[in-house]
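Progress note, sequence design subtask.
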């Protein structure tokens, strides 16, 4: 029991989708270093908007990385894959024991409403939840340059609460933090109903073939209460519990009443 105090320190896997050199993951790893033992396993390049993609048709390479945290140097690895790859690889191969928590972020840009489906940041946390580990995704709600230190303080408080209580099975948290000096508080929210109205700019390549570049803008279609969009727009930290079970449970009985059998089967 000589290492008794060490054994009590939670093991925290830190990942992201902005890449291992992004300022957001440095800020998150720094505050996690105050909470437990940090191991960083993150994409070597930016993987924003890859969603829950995994790499199956090419090898994934892992490179030890020099990653400074306040207590010294964290064990860290850069991976030539997606955020979901990073979590799978870390949990199955890299980590010496099961982590107590997986945190993803802090993403540079909000991940609210339908965007959680496109988000690599959220998908890393979702993958951890699928594999039975408590997980939280953190995003800072701005695309402008903005310091991550205040959002990292919120991340630390939320992580301490989760480590104390533990998440329900297969539930992860999606946290969005406004880029404001005077955050008003914290709200537990649901995903707003929303979509992107797409546009594609058509250009011509040097061989005169058309190519397309996605543009488009986010449209909130939900003016109901307690949405994540409303929370961050009104200066609140938004915490949305998510689950990867996409079954429309409330519609199961309805669809069981439909006539699915071929003609004549009564
Ligand atoms: Mn990102």
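Output:
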């Amino acid at each position: 029991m000589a290492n008794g105090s060490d054994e009590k320190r939670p093991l925290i896997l830190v990942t992201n989708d902005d890449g291992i050199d992004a300022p957001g993951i440095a800020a998150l790893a720094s505050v996690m270093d105050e909470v437990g033992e940090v191991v960083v396993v993150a994409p070597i390049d930016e993987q924003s908007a890859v969603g829950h993609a995994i790499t199956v048709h090419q090898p994934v390479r892992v490179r030890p990385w020099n990653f400074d945290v306040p207590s010294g140097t964290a064990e860290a690895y850069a991976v030539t894959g997606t955020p979901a790859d990073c979590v799978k690889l870390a949990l199955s191969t890299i980590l010496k024991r099961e982590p107590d928590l997986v945190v993803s972020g802090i993403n540079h840009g909000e991940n609210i409403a339908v965007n959680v489906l496109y988000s690599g940041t959220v998908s890393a946390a979702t993958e951890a939840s699928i594999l039975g580990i408590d997980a939280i995704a953190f995003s800072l709600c701005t695309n402008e340059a903005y310091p991550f230190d205040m959002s990292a303080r919120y991340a630390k408080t939320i992580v301490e609460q989760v480590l104390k209580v533990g998440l329900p099975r297969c539930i992860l948290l999606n946290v969005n933090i406004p880029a404001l000096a005077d955050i008003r508080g914290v709200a537990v929210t649901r995903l707003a109903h929303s979509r992107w109205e797409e546009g594609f700019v058509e250009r011509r390549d040097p061989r005169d073939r058309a190519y397309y570049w996605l543009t488009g803008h986010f449209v909130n279609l939900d003016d109901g209460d307690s949405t994540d969009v409303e929370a961050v727009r009104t200066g609140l930290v938004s915490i949305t519990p998510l689950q990867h079970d996409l079954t429309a449970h409330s519609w199961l009985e309805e669809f069981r009443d439909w006539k699915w059998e071929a003609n004549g089967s009564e």
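Residues 149-165 form the longest helix (17 residues). Work on this subtask will continue into the next period as scheduled.
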